[in-house]
Amino acid sequence: MLSVGFRALFRREILRFVRRPKNTFMPPAITNVLYFAVFGLILGGRIDQIAGFDYILFIVPGLVVLGAISNAFENASFSIFHGRWNEYIHETLTSPLSYVEMVVAYVGASAVRGLIVGVIITVVGRLFVPISIEHGLYLVATMVVITSLFAGFGIIGGLVARDFDDLTVMNQFILRPLVFFGAVFYSLGTFEQAWQVNLSLLNPMVYMVDSVRFGLLGYSDLISVGILPEPYTDFAPLASLAVLTACTLLVLGIDVYLFKTGYGLTD
Amino acid sequence: MPPAIETVDLVKEYGDLRALQELSLTVEEGEFFGLLGPNGAGKTTFINTLVGLVRKTGGDARVFGYDVEDDYQQARDAIGLAPQEFNVDRFFSIREVLKHKAGYHGVPESEAAERADEVLKRVGIYDKRDERFDWLSGGMKRRLLLARALVTEPDLLILDEPTAGVDVQLRHDLWELVTELNEEGTTILLTTHYIEEAERLCDRVAIMNEGRKVTVATPDELKGRGTDTIAVRLESAPARTPDLGAYAHETTVSGERLEVRVDDGGSTAPQLLNDLEAMGHEIADLEITRTSLEEIFVDLTRSEDRTVTRSSAESSDDGESPTDGREPEREQEGVA
């Protein structure tokens, strides 16, 4: 049973971004129209199919991941940091909510924003190319896990940041490069050298993009490159989801620990 | 019934700085308790330790018997805090801010809305309910902080310098409101720089300095620790300073005016008059001046500095008077 206090904080967090669609939902919608138009229509027509998919369709899952996790991260980090900056996070901290409730409310609301952005990007993509969802349940589970994971990272970012520039640095200089080298715009099959594939597999984004691609298109690079030995090769998406879930729980645990110790929140 | 606040040897350190030094304090349920002290005395640190915005370094702190760290949810649920700083959510109207705060304390949404309207009316800013905090005047902002503290219907209301920088009208409105709340049973902890405020409102006050408790007493007890001055105007100037009894700590003569410093002006005056008349003096007028709480406060906080003499302590004052730079006032008790 979710407590009244938890629901109040969760609702406050949702209302904060829902009431500002110009700041929260319009930018990813417009950006992705541009991505689909330029990379999909203008350039995509000159690129061969990848793994049997038109290029414009192949990049949809990566763009969904990019938008969803960026927004989840941004929402959580902004909410925490802005609250710290103006000290109104004290309204939450001086309330009888448990530390777990505080973290789950902040993370949950930010994950919701990430999920909504993911849906918006899918709808935008649908305007350019027909998309059918192959593994719906797996897709939803993956999206919930990865948006929660990055919302959890956003909490840490919001607690660690000393000014607004720090938040920009985290998003632009860490998150985006990892996503762009996370096989959003290409397939691991594109690489001819084994070390290139192995290096890519060190990037955690590869697993997230691949999982969403598996959920949406039914295709997984990780199955194709055989990341798991026979006869377990086809379990790669499930293994990815399991590891991502474990990572998410770990990050949420760190968030709760930081709230409990008051890191960045109390003197 | 456990005390509203009970701290034992409470310590807070910031590196080498000890903001709270083995502070032991008890505030009983239903009390109106004042916390006085100069800037940097540790008053806000003490308050923030109770509500969870400061983590103690050592000692114990309990609110209605609940440990502020182990039972933080119960302890925080009992407290309503109106802080010094304007730490209010800028994204929402003030009515929504109050609804959210009530919600965090477990008040269902419909009841939270009713409570928000009620407290906005009570502090007199209901017509501003749809405004955001930034659009309010300074006085209204102060009222909102009080409304936010009240919307959770706390058993312990903590007011951290609620009247700092507000006009006389608002100050009196706030005094009236908190007095009402206290009469309704709410325990109140008030920190203030205004001695008059503490004297007027508080059952007991604690004087703090440099993170330590200097003393805890009622305002009257504190005033009793000072000396009174009886000023007598004689019909004719005495030839020499009258030799009075042991009750006179100091006697000075200036023309026809005689000033005698005694412990208790009220009870000593008749004896002084008798003694003067016995010596052949005729009394024209008499005035008793009691030591103000403000003077006691200044004396107590200055006497904390044990390494320097009182006069050198005064000369080394950094200019930030614990009484907001006001000259000590002497209270007129009666004129004969």
Protein model, in words:
- The complex is a heterodimer of chains A (267) and B (336).
- Chain A has helices at 4-18, 21-24, 26-43, 55-58, 60-85, 90-93, 99-128, 136-160, 164-180, 194-201, 204-217, 221-224, 236-261.
- In chain A, helix 3 (26-43) packs parallel to helix 7 and helix 8 packs parallel to helix 13 (236-261).
- Chain A is globular and about 55 Å long.
- By secondary structure, chain A is an all-alpha fold.
- Chain B has 336 residues and is an alpha/beta fold.
- Chain B has 2 domains: 5-222, Rossmann fold (3-Layer(aba) Sandwich); 227-290, Alpha-Beta Plaits (2-Layer Sandwich), CATH 3.30.70.
- Chain B is 34% helix and 27% strand.
- Chain B has helices spanning 43-51, 72-77, 94-104, 109-123, 138-150, 168-183, 195-201, 219-224, 265-278, 293-303, 310-315; strands spanning 5-14, 17-27, 32-36, 58-63, 66-67, 79-82, 156-160, 187-192, 204-209, 212-217, 228-234, 250-254, 257-262, 283-290, 331-335.
- Chain B has a 6-stranded mixed sheet, sandwiched between helices. In chain B, strands 12-13-11-14-15 form a 5-stranded antiparallel sheet, with helices on one face.
- In chain B, a hairpin with a 2-residue loop joins strand 4 (58-63) and strand 5.
- In chain B, helix 3 (94-104) crosses helix 4 (109-123) and helix 4 crosses helix 5 (138-150).
- Classes of the chains: A mainly alpha (267), B alpha/beta (336).
- At the A-B interface, helix 1 and helix 6 of A face helix 1, helix 2 and helix 3 of B.
Task: Describe the secondary structure blueprint for this structure.
The complex is a heterodimer of chains A (267) and B (336).
Chain A: H1 4-18, H2 21-24, H3 26-43, H4 55-58, H5 60-85, H6 90-93, H7 99-128, H8 136-160, H9 164-180, H10 194-201, H11 204-217, H12 221-224, H13 236-261
Helix pairs in contact in A: 1-7, 3-7, 5-7, 5-8, 5-9, 5-11, 7-8, 7-13, 8-11, 8-13, 11-13
Chain B: E1 5-14, E2 17-27, E3 32-36, H1 43-51, E4 58-63, E5 66-67, H2 72-77, E6 79-82, H3 94-104, H4 109-123, H5 138-150, E7 156-160, H6 168-183, E8 187-192, H7 195-201, E9 204-209, E10 212-217, H8 219-224, E11 228-234, E12 250-254, E13 257-262, H9 265-278, E14 283-290, H10 293-303, H11 310-315, E15 331-335
Parallel strand pairs in B: 3-8, 3-9, 6-7, 7-8
Antiparallel strand pairs in B: 1-2, 1-4, 4-5, 9-10, 11-13, 11-14, 12-13, 14-15
